[in-house]
Write a structure and sequence with these properties.
The chain is mainly β. The chain contains no helices and eight strands. The chain has an eight-stranded antiparallel beta barrel with strand order 1-2-3-4-5-6-7-8. The relative contact order is 0.23.
């Protein structure tokens, strides 16, 4: 399954629900792209991304706080769900769909 394109995700995080737009590019099992947090209009690049079947993992660094977010999700058709780990804050649910 190809996951290229834009995904509208909601993270139920420590500061409440955050809407993010994730632009993904898949090539040879690697995943790259960007994450746009709509609440503060901040964009960051995805790194260490991978695709294994329907399992996606990627990381993104926050710019205002020294923290790396780690996403682990599953894609089924045009839906995505999983977890986002936010350092010492713990893991939070992520849900969304292809935009």
């Amino acid at each position: 399954m190809r996951v290229d394109g834009d995904w509208q995700l909601t993270v139920d995080g420590p500061m409440g629900k955050q809407d993010v737009l994730v632009a993904l590019r898949q090539e040879d099992g690697r995943l790259s792209g960007t994450v746009l947090n709509k609440s503060n209009n901040m964009t960051t690049d995805i790194f260490d991304g991978s695709v294994d079947g329907d399992q996606l993992t990627w990381k993104a660094k926050l710019k205002l706080v020294a923290m790396t977010l780690t996403f682990s999700t599953t894609v089924q058709d045009d839906k995505m769900s999983g977890k986002m780990k936010a350092g010492l804050f713990g893991s939070f649910d992520v849900i969304g769909e292809r935009a």
